[in-house]
Amino acid sequence: MPTGGFVATSLKVLFNISGTKQEPAHHIAIIGVALRDTAYTYFDPHGLPSGGDWALQKQGAITVVGSEAVTIDKCLLTRLDGNAIFIGGYNRNLSITNNELSFIGDSAIASWGDTSAALNANGSLTVPGGFKVGPDGRDGEQPRGTVVANNICHEIGLWQKQSSLWFQAVTAQTLLKDNIFFNGPRAAFNFNDGFGGGDDISGNLLLNCVRESSDHGPWNSWSRVPYITNIRTGEPSIIPATRRIHNNFILATYSSQQAIDTDDGSAYYEVYDNFFAYGENGLKSDFGGHDNVWHGNVLAYVGNCYTVFNFKGYNDAFYDNKCVFRTGYGSTCGLSTGFDVHSNSVFSESGNLTVCKTDWANWTATGHDTSSTLSRWPVDAALVAMGKKVLGM
């Protein structure tokens, strides 16, 4: 028997901050407290947030729904058997900073917004039951402008394996900055859809992700359904604002497929000035993915520098990268002329490379991979120096 006694927990929510878009809860701060020992929630009712693979329950130890200017800072959230923090519906400028989140049963932080029940322009056709899951997100009933910065998170997904440090669905304009994450069963950051865009992911250190499956990466995204917002240009559009992933250090250990797994239709990404180590692929664009631009990255000992299939690389680009590969570089052989590949520094173990059944010299001489170079693997010190340079270290 445990020494010191035994306590059965029953509470699942410790702080409930709830309002509406019309009357939001506002200017509330939770600072410097320790929260622990909430009950598990994996048998609670779950819903499908959007077009990704997840199911989710709408609650956390800290539950924030319908808010403005809420702050969660310098807290310890540990031994919480459901989500640590859940963000739902309308939220603006929520700040989650300087916290430690550890030994979490589900996700550390999950964000799930609402759209509208309308299925056409005048609202005469609606989703049965009036559920706010239609394509129109212009009412703004979503978390927007959330800042998640300077947190350390580890040991999550103890019960619910589809879990992350940060999960978002029907959420936009998130800033994920300078966080440290390690030891989780799946991706550290998971974006369930392409809603709205305008997110910025920078300065994060991610490692030891995907420890319980290999079909994933430290970052994962899907974009299988369209959403209407005004975020990109101020006018209604299904095209989201570009998401930017930059200046991150990501180690794709535990046989990750990718460091950045832009899966199933993921589009409108700019990925630059990152240091990616290991993983099977660099740029990934598949199943309808497009407009995925990589430049200025250092890829260390990846399987392949890029892999593109199913949509021929439409509006994708891979340039000014340094890629040390184990298996292959990739090639534009058979891909769309819209896939722009040039000016890369490519490193193979032997210093040789066959592309589209020809050697590198003939491949570049015929107008492919213009201004790209091929060399043998650099020594480790040189490779580390490349990584430090892009990270500004």
Instruction: Report the CATH C-level class.
Output: Mainly Beta
| Share of helix, binned | under 10%
Helix segment count? 2
Rounded radius of gyration (Å): 22 Å
Structural class, by secondary structure, is: mainly beta
CATH topology: Pectate Lyase C-like
The count of domains is 1
Reported CATH architecture: 3 Solenoid
Low-confidence stretches: none
Our measurement of the CA-to-CA distance between the termini, rounded to an integer number of angstroms, reads: 50 Å
Which descriptor suits the 3D outline? globular
DSSP summary, beta strand count: 34
Give the overall average pLDDT. 94
% residues in beta strands: 35-45%
Outline the secondary-structure elements.
Blueprint: E1 15-18, E2 25-31, E3 34-36, E4 62-73, E5 76-80, E6 85-92, E7 95-97, E8 100-104, E9 109-112, E10 143-144, E11 147-149, E12 152-156, E13 166-169, E14 175-177, E15 180-182, E16 189-191, E17 200-202, E18 205-207, E19 219-221, E20 243-246, E21 249-252, E22 260-262, E23 267-272, E24 275-278, E25 281-285, E26 290-295, E27 298-308, E28 317-319, E29 322-328, E30 340-342, E31 345-348, E32 354-355, E33 358-359, H1 360-365, E34 373-376, H2 380-391
